[in-house]
Amino acid sequence: MLNHMSTYIKMRMNGLTSRPLRERTYDISAGGQVMQVLHSRFNMNWLTELGITPQVLMDLGSFDGGDAWRMKHTFPNARVITVEADPARIEAVRAALVDTDVEVHNFAACDQDSPVPWFSATVDGAVHAQGSLFQHSDAFQKRFKHVTQADTPITVTGKRFDTFCAEIDVTEIDLLHMDIEGAELSVLRSIGNLRPTLIYLEWRENAFKGHGSSADAQSLLDAMGYRLIANLGDDRLYRLHS
User: Fold this and answer.
1) Cα–Cα distance, 65 to 90 (Å, whole number)
2) Among 3.40.190.10, 3.30.479.30, 3.20.20.70, 3.40.50.150, what is the CATH number of 2-240?
3) Which of 34, 57, 206, 227 has the greatest CB tally within 10 Å of its CB?
4) CA distance from start to end of the chain
5) What are the domain boundaries of the chain?
6) Which residues of 48-82 are buried (b: 16+ CB within 10 A; e: fewer)?
7) How far is C-alpha 114 from the chain's CA centre?
8) Model confidence over 210-227: pLDDT tens digits?
9) For residue 145, with 0-12 CB atoms within 10 Å meaning exposed, 13-18 middle and 19 or more buried, which class applies?
């Protein structure tokens, strides 16, 4: 309880008056049907509370399109772009966003423009959100016993973040929202001269084999001019210094 209070006090000091959401499923209407999709803990009110009227919102790790759907319906005039690496998930993303003009792309955001290995993951036999460029560590497997990751990867298209933004003519980003199962540091290393105003990312320490530490990510974000304004444990929100 004290840790939660300390977190919320620090958030208020940084201009965030709304509390983080609970990650959960919610209902949307898409293509004339009611669908259940998932949203992160990111509270869309935070953009307004920080004085940001978003023009471009970027979502890496679509899973089922739930966060991109929220972005578009909260800020209908913004350009919303979402990326999903898993070829088994992309049609579900498109189905959820069929009634919107959200731009949907299928590739693995990382630090190279080349084919990359992809380890899919299942829950109860269905392809789920924990697919990754990296194999799960023993610590991950112990924490998430219900998740089964493939032993043998498939190959998917890999693309640097700066390459992708150049291709779609994006030079400014108000929010970069990332839940990409260990590839967050790879994206930060490929960000080039781009500086999103806010970066929201999931970080699970020691969860993936061969991927860097939170200290690596923090050092890089510090060097790029970012300040941590909300530490929610696995999820963190950074703002670019003005």
Assistant:
1) 9
2) 3.40.50.150
3) 57
4) 32
5) 2-240
6) ebbeeebebbbbbbbbbbbbbbbbbeebeebbbbb
7) 21
8) 777 788 889 999 999 999
9) exposed
